[in-house]
Amino acid sequence: MRKRGKQTWYYEHSIYLNASATVVGPKEAQGPLAATFDKTYDKLHCEENNWELAERRLMKNSIDICLNKGNKTKEQVDLLLAGDLLNQNVTSNYVARSLSIPFLCMFGACSTSMETLAIGSALVDAGFADHIIAATSSHNATAERQFRYPTEYGGQKPDTATCTATGGGAGLVSKEKSVIRIECATIGKVMDYGTKDPFDMGSAMAPAAYDTIKTHFEDTGRNPAYYDLIVTGDLSSVGSPILKDMLKEDGYNMEKVHNDCGLMLYNSDQKVFAGGSGCASSALVTYGHIVQALQEGRYNKVFIVATGALMNPIMIQQKESIPSIAHGVVLMREEGVS
Amino acid sequence: MKDKFNQQNYDQTVKEYQPKPNVLWNCIKAFIVGGSICLLGQFLTEFYMNVLDMTESQAANPTITTLIFLSALLTGIGVYDRIGQFAGAGSAVPITGFANSITSAALEHKSEGLVLGVATNLFKLAGSVIVFGVVSAYVVGLIRYTIQSFL
């Protein structure tokens, strides 16, 4: 049975993540996960003339490298699922324009990485596609322009703010056997606990992550100890402890297994306020560090919960609160596969 | 989830998780940086008065122009936003902050062309300052005129 409990999908066939790729900007390349990225740029402009082109290049690069690593040509890919943070998902749409792969555009804010992976896997499982690519990207400067102020504006940000990660990540999914199996996914509900501060997404998103993780445990009958690692996308140093305390009230102790992608991406001296955020945050850590650790056998079971603040600057100005969502995907190491 | 976190009191509950801004230290930083900018302005005024033989009112314009130029330059080379993060109101309130808001918007929207990009967005941040500046000047002027005409 594919559906278990209320929100969890088990893939009936064995679905695999055959290859993945990550491309990053300068700040991420200086972080502790530098060695896990496939390509790095030392300038935020990524050899392009404007920020939007730079972000497009990051996503395009990640897809190209991913295809290369998976030994597939784009003609062999049946479907591309992608999304980003910009209005009308321009990065994804313009990258898809250059690829001529059938395309589904998605928006889940920073939860897009797992949204595309979960739905892509479901479509492969159901036989609608043999090979799919799930991709996402974010760029610090395009996000600043979209959601906040011009890049060089000298406004002061509070310590609860997060710093949008610059990067693109892509994964290739099919039924072809490889080391990493995509076992199940939990689709989240939109949660809104009424916070209104766009400079504190961690507090806004913690309830969404809480709800998805709790539902996942209920649907699957698992508990935190079942996993080697449970990561959230970009809850920051503010949202992470909130999440852990929320789950503690329900009797789930996350202390030993939880980490946050936005905190894993950067060193503590890198001036990213409360941590990294953006679609790239969870994508870079998943498609880089986690994939490699699963391949090497350092992890066996990982639950990735990508968190997205469905924030719109105009809604904030109209005094609305920030709705959030979180989608989780379970990646498992398949023994006996080279 | 039982007591601590519920939708009604969430905003209050999470306050303890959010780092508190250090108001005193922020005030000191703003005072030092804002004061230094004003000190530089005073130095420039003295320079124009003593070296270029201007009166105090004549020296005001080149002083402001020089500060605007320096702010725009620092914005262009990517330094002013770092000063702003450190100083807060200290670098936002003086004329240099105004210049930064205009220059940063111009730089940001260069990619959309001169008319619809730079020109349209130039006062995106500074526009509200101008609107409230003009409106409050008008109101204060009216009050002053009314009082004067009764005295």
From TrEMBL, chain A:
<dbReference type="Pfam" id="PF07451">
    <property type="entry name" value="SpoVAD"/>
</dbReference>
<dbReference type="InterPro" id="IPR038369">
    <property type="entry name" value="SpoVAD_sf"/>
</dbReference>
<dbReference type="InterPro" id="IPR016039">
    <property type="entry name" value="Thiolase-like"/>
</dbReference>
<dbReference type="InterPro" id="IPR010894">
    <property type="entry name" value="SpoVAD"/>
</dbReference>
<dbReference type="GO" id="GO:0016746">
    <property type="term" value="F:acyltransferase activity"/>
</dbReference>
<protein>
    <submittedName>
        <fullName>Stage V sporulation protein AD</fullName>
    </submittedName>
</protein>
From TrEMBL, chain B:
<dbReference type="InterPro" id="IPR005562">
    <property type="entry name" value="SpoVA"/>
</dbReference>
<keyword id="KW-1133">Transmembrane helix</keyword>
<keyword id="KW-0812">Transmembrane</keyword>
<protein>
    <submittedName>
        <fullName>Stage V sporulation protein AC</fullName>
    </submittedName>
</protein>
<feature type="transmembrane region" description="Helical">
    <location>
        <begin position="127"/>
        <end position="147"/>
    </location>
</feature>
<keyword id="KW-0472">Membrane</keyword>
<feature type="transmembrane region" description="Helical">
    <location>
        <begin position="23"/>
        <end position="44"/>
    </location>
</feature>
<dbReference type="Pfam" id="PF03862">
    <property type="entry name" value="SpoVAC_SpoVAEB"/>
</dbReference>
<feature type="transmembrane region" description="Helical">
    <location>
        <begin position="64"/>
        <end position="80"/>
    </location>
</feature>
<dbReference type="InterPro" id="IPR014203">
    <property type="entry name" value="Spore_V_AC"/>
</dbReference>
